[in-house]
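Consider this:
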Amino acid sequence: MPHKPEYYMHRALELAAQAAALGEVPVGAVIVNAEGEIVGRGFNQCISQQDATAHAEVQAIRDACQNTHNYRLNQCTLYVTLEPCTMCIGAILNARIKTLYYGAKEPRTGVIASVCNLPAQPWFNHRLEVKGGLLQAAAKKLLENFFQARR
């Protein structure tokens, strides 16, 4: 039985905290199937993996595709602690994720509400349902604490 969206965002925040503990920008993501089961998990690992594409969303998509044995995640929902960038929206759309929840806005590179609304462009053949601001304060605080500690 599926939980409320806050439950899944808390799981994503836990993953973001794992990223921070490794010195990575604290962003976490989980992917949930239609039955409410978490099928994919990821957190930022760009530094540790020396991979510019190792964002939380991409890591979670890779994990979900492996766990579901499918490159399409049609009935899945992605929960991520930070508004996705252009690369991640591309991956989300290509995976055909049904719904996206995000926590904090990313004013410099977020392409849903901050810089533009990339998924709403008419040339995409997939429509993504987006819900922003879920546990925004907690996600923002985690990022602020991380960057304050690094200064």
Remarks:
- The chain is about 40% helix and 20% strand.
- The radius of gyration is 14 Å.
- The longest helix spans residues 5-21.
